[in-house]
Amino acid sequence: MHVTVRYFAAARAAAGVETEELDVPPDTTVDGLVEHLSKRGPDLANVLLRCSFLRDGIAVRDRGARLQTLQTVDVLPPFAGG
Question: Would the keyword Mitochondrion be found if you checked this record's keyword annotation (predicted)?
Fold first, then answer.
């Protein structure tokens, strides 16, 4: 299953890329994607613990929700400001 992951702010810095295309197993959930990405290193893993996620522009409330092929997942760390 093919998904696009877009990183913002601290997540972008920790991932070292702005956007990437990934092939993940069918039935991968948002939590499963986070687990997969966290294996890349402690910096990214720590940032991902605090992030929220959008799936095709809609906030993910259930991280156990399954992804679908060609979806875009935005990785959003907490933002400061107003």
Answer: no
